[in-house]
């Protein structure tokens, strides 16, 4: 065997020729592999190193690199072919190539050769001093390790012809030009994460674009002084793409650039070679600044629209809740209204216990004389009163009970559960006490009361309407009993109400069939004991029940709105009767006629016109007509009532205040209205001989009429002692059974003849 330490060039030449290698032409990869095999079997380590030295002395352009691409040997053939001298030894081969992309391609080829693959036709581009690029084709083979020596790669090169080299160079330049021309951002990273390509779409500044080649993303981000969070997100996406071996797309926002805010959609795509090793990573993207701005503007509009929709929806929901609330609550007091109360009452009716065992109770409260408050203080004061009433009722009942406003001045209370009827009666008393406490409305202190109808509900009721019907009946019975009290419904009350309803219908028919009759009670002048006039009183000639007194039908007339029609009928008939009688008895022309007028007349706009019409049609002298009104009339609106009374008096008609002392009149009322006469109520006359207070009251009234230039008429005189006492007090007129009962006109005329004739005789 040849001594490896003394291998001479001549011996190496013989060895080359012996193995069929041409020193003038580079061997193929197969021959290189064969040569390497011979060297491994015939030479030792020192010999191998010596043979490496001899290889570099061959005329073939040959160079040897480490597996990582660092140049270890570079012969003279390479100097002539590639334009570089031995000074490049120790440099990385890819640093001598024409572009970083060449280095990236070479890196993959070297990795394959290092794994034992035989490569031919490997094109390499070396830039020349004149700016041109020299192309060469190489064979690459593995130079194996032996006895501790490091393995390497041996490149044997051959130059291409000028025409072929130009074509190939043009093709490569075309690809790189094409990549640079793409307007979208495009970068290429080698497996170590270093930039090997970057187009103008990715980085506009050419200096930075040149600087970035060979730099990592971290170096670039630090150089540009981007936020650390941007680098962290980018590195996380890079690792995700390699780990999951797929493209990863994400967005990046760059603030404070020369163009302001810039938004890019970036995609990182890892590329793997045939062995599954990472070859490169492509970074490409699209600037979406305007798109994102448009999307954000659209999003803002959508959010604004959504906010408006939500706000509008909230408004509609609130409005719907308010509508639902308003549908079941009273606008003035805030209490449940009739509809809601009825619904809750229906539920209570459905849950009611056995017959005779009340499970719930309903109280119907009506405000006594509420109309008078509205008329005197005005409707705003009336509304304020109702609001205060609602508050007091709510504060008196339990939270489980329902207080509702039925309408007008009526309230209802549903006691959902009770232990005994006595509990409900006690509640009614507490309610009445709470209501009677003085209230201030319209700057005035007002005291009111309520009349309460009570129904104790059991299985006998099948609907809320039935319960409310009977509560209404009981409430009206409470009013009829004197107001301010309470009544528990009893079945006989319903029967009475039915009778009264039937009576109302019959009374309406009586007006049409002329079934009403008049009787006249004489009014006596006490100084002469002569008849001074008559009060016309109405009776009803019922077809089945006979002659009915006013107490049997006038309350029904007042409740049903027939009182005004009856009053007008009485006035017209009485004026006709008296006019006819006076024509037959001329001496009776001086007699007066008193007719009662209810409060409804003074709310009617045609009252004065009606009086004028009746007087004209009947020919009755208005100087002898007295219209009697109750004190309740004076509780209406003072100005309107006062003007109506003055208009009546302007016709020549006189005004009498009936039942004085029983109502709510005061001296201020008497001074405000054009009255002619006060009629002393029969209750004071009846007790004046037994009661000092009644006697003093009658004396005061008579004295007051004299001081105010009014007349006084005492009602209900039953005996001579009462008459004598009235005469002693100076009362001018009286009427009562002591003088005569109310009589038909002809019989009343006879009383005039007897009394006046006896006096004259």
Descriptive account of the structure:
With 761 residues, the chain is of the alpha+beta class. The chain folds into 4 domains: 4-171, PAS domain (Beta-Lactamase); 182-287, Beta-Lactamase (2-Layer Sandwich), CATH 3.30.450; 338-489, Reverse transcriptase/Diguanylate cyclase domain (Alpha-Beta Plaits, 2-Layer Sandwich); 510-756, Alpha-Beta Barrel (TIM Barrel). 46% of the residues lie in helices and 22% in strands. The strands form 5 sheets. The protein has an 8-stranded mixed beta barrel with strand order 18-19-21-22-23-24-25-26, surrounded by 4 helices. Helix 8 (217-223) runs antiparallel to helix 9 (228-244), helix 12 packs across helix 13 and helix 13 packs antiparallel against helix 14 (421-436). The model is unreliable at 1-7, 43-48 and 161-168 (pLDDT under 50). Pfam families: EAL (PF00563), GGDEF (PF00990), PAS_4 (PF08448). Residues 358-491 form the GGDEF domain. Residues 288-322 form a coiled coil.
């Amino acid at each position: 065997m040849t001594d490896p330490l003394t291998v001479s060039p001549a011996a190496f030449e013989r060895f080359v020729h012996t193995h069929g290698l041409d020193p003038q032409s580079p061997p193929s990869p197969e021959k290189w592999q064969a040569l390497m095999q011979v060297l491994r079997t015939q030479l030792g380590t020192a010999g191998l190193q010596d043979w490496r030295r001899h290889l570099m002395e061959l005329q073939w352009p040959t160079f040897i690199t480490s597996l990582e691409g660092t140049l270890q040997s570079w012969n003279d053939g390479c100097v002539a072919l590639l334009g570089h001298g031995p000074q490049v030894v120790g440099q990385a081969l890819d640093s001598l190539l024409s572009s970083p992309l060449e280095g990236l391609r070479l890196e993959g080829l070297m990795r394959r050769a290092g794994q034992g693959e035989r490569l031919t036709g490997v094109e390499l581009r070396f830039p020349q001093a004149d700016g041109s690029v020299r192309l060469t084709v190489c064979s690459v083979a593995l130079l194996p390790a032996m006895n501790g020596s490091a393995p390497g790669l041996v490149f044997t090169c051959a130059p291409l012809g000028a025409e072929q080299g130009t074509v190939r160079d043009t093709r490569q330049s075309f690809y790189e030009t094409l990549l640079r021309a793409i307007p979208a951002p495009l970068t290429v990273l080698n497996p170590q994460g270093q930039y090997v390509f970057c187009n103008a779409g990715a980085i506009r500044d050419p200096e930075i674009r040149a600087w970035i080649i060979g730099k990592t993303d971290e170096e670039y981000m630090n150089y540009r002084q981007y936020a650390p969070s941007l680098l962290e997100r980018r590195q996380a996406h890079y690792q995700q793409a390699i780990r999951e071996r797929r493209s990863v797309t994400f967005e990046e926002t760059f603030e404070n650039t020369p163009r302001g805010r810039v938004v890019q959609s970036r995609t990182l795509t890892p590329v793997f070679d045939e062995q599954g090793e990472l070859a490169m990573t492509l970074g490409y993207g699209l600037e979406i600044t305007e798109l994102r701005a448009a999307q954000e503007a659209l999003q803002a509009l959508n959010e604004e629209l959504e906010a408006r929709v939500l706000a509008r929806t909230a408004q509609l929901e609130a409005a719907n809740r308010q509508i639902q609330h308003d549908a079941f609550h009273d606008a003035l007091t805030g209490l449940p209204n009739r509809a809601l109360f009825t619904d809750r009452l229906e539920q209570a009716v459905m849950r009611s216990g056995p017959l005779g065992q009340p499970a719930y109770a309903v109280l119907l409260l009506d405000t006594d004389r509420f109309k008078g408050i509205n008329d005197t203080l005005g409707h705003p004061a009336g509304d304020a009163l109702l609001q205060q009433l609602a508050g007091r009722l709510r504060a008196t009942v339990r939270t489980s009970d329902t207080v509702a406003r039925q309408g007008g001045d009526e309230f209802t209370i549903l006691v959902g559960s009770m232990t005994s009827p006595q509990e409900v009666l006690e509640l009614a008393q507490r309610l009445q006490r709470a209501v009677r406490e003085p209230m201030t409305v319209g700057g005035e202190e007002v005291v009111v009361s309520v009349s309460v109808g009570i129904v104790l509900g059991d299985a006998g009721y099948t609907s809320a309407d039935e319960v409310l019907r009977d509560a209404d009946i009981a409430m009206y019975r409470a009013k009829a009993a004197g107001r301010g009290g309470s009544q528990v419904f009893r079945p006989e009350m319903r029967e009475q109400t039915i009778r009264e309803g039937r009576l109302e219908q019959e009374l309406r028919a009586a007006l049409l069939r002329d079934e009403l009759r008049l009787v006249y009670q004489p009014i006596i002048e006490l100084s002469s004991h002569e008849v001074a006039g008559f009060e016309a009183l109405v009776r009803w000639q019922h077809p089945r029940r006979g002659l009915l007194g006013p107490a049997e039908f006038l309350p029904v007339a007042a409740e049903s709105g027939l009182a005004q029609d009856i009053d007008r009928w009485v006035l017209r008939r009485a004026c006709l009767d008296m006019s006819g009688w006076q024509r037959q008895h001329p001496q009776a022309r001086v007699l007066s006629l008193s007719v009662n007028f209810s409060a409804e007349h003074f709310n009617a706009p045609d009252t004065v016109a009606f009086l004028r019409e009746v007087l004209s049609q009947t020919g009755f002298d208005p100087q002898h007509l007295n219209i009697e009104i109750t004190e309740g009339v004076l509780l209406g609106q003072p100005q309107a009532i006062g003007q109506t009374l003055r208009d009546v008096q302007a016709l020549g008609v006189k005004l009498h205040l009936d039942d004085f002392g029983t109502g709510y009149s005061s001296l201020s009322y008497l001074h405000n209205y054009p009255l002619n006469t006060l009629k002393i109520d029969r209750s004071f006359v009846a007790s004046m001989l037994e009661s000092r207070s009644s006697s003093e009251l009658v004396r005061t009234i008579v004295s007051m009429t004299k001081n105010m230039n009014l007349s006084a008429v005492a009602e209900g005189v039953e005996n001579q002692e009462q008459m004598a006492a009235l005469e002693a007090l100076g009362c001018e007129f009286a009427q009562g059974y002591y003088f005569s009962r109310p009589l038909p006109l002809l019989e009343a005329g006879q009383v005039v003849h007897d009394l006046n004739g006896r006096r004259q005789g």
